[in-house]
Amino acid sequence: MRIRKLFKFENAHIVRNCSSERCKHSIHGHSYQIELILEAKRLDHGQMVYDFGLLKSSIKDIIDSFDHAICFWSKDDPEYIAACKKFSARWISLPVSPSAEQFSRVIFFWAQEILKQTQMQNGETDVSVYSVIAHETATGYAQCFADDVANEQMGKLALEEFAFSEQVCAEWHDPELYAKLIRGVRFVNPSVTMQVQPDA
């Protein structure tokens, strides 16, 4: 069984080394729509793959980091990176290019890591990310699967290789969200009182 949750954000970037002259030389932005698709082979006590309400906490916060922020590849020109940090309170440093393809990989990676570190409280057993679709425009999107995240030929992803501005962190429900993710701190879902006893 699979479920889909839609997230939206506005983001700016330069995509270095791409074929388009405009995209590789000029800051530009997109209205992104992100489809996060989760799957499980059994349902929780509420007979859901994963309660949509639970996606409004850490996973929503980490995706919302992109909103009204500028993203840059950590290998870009140091002067450009310094200018991004100086003139934008909201920025994210990525170990890969800020393309739609990499956005789909990064969001898949973050969401999967959060789920791995989450203490489930309502009978969820094997919830995982099935796919992430990053709609960059009304006509173009990139779709990522687990094999793409693991494929180092597409760029290695490691939690320690990302950086967020102070303003981005301050706007999370927990400003220590990413630091806790790196340290392996457990995220604990709310406990649930059974109103109807599920089948054994």
UniProtKB/TrEMBL annotation:
Record family assignment: Belongs to the PTPS family. QueD subfamily.
EC number: 4.1.2.50
PANTHER family per UniProt: 6-PYRUVOYL TETRAHYDROBIOPTERIN SYNTHASE, PYRUVOYL TETRAHYDROBIOPTERIN SYNTHASE
Names of the cofactor(s): Zn(2+)
Record's keyword annotation contains Protease: no
Catalytic reaction annotation: 7,8-dihydroneopterin 3'-triphosphate + H2O = 6-carboxy-5,6,7,8-tetrahydropterin + triphosphate + acetaldehyde + 2 H(+)
The organism's taxonomic lineage, starting at the top: Bacteria, Pseudomonadati, Pseudomonadota, Gammaproteobacteria, Moraxellales
One matching Pfam family: PTPS
Protein name, as recorded: 6-carboxy-5,6,7,8-tetrahydropterin synthase
Keywords of this entry: Lyase, Metal-binding, Zinc
Pathway membership: Purine metabolism; 7-cyano-7-deazaguanine biosynthesis
Domain of life according to the entry: Bacteria
The protein's enzyme class: lyase
Transmembrane domains' residue ranges: none
Keyword ATP-binding on entry: no
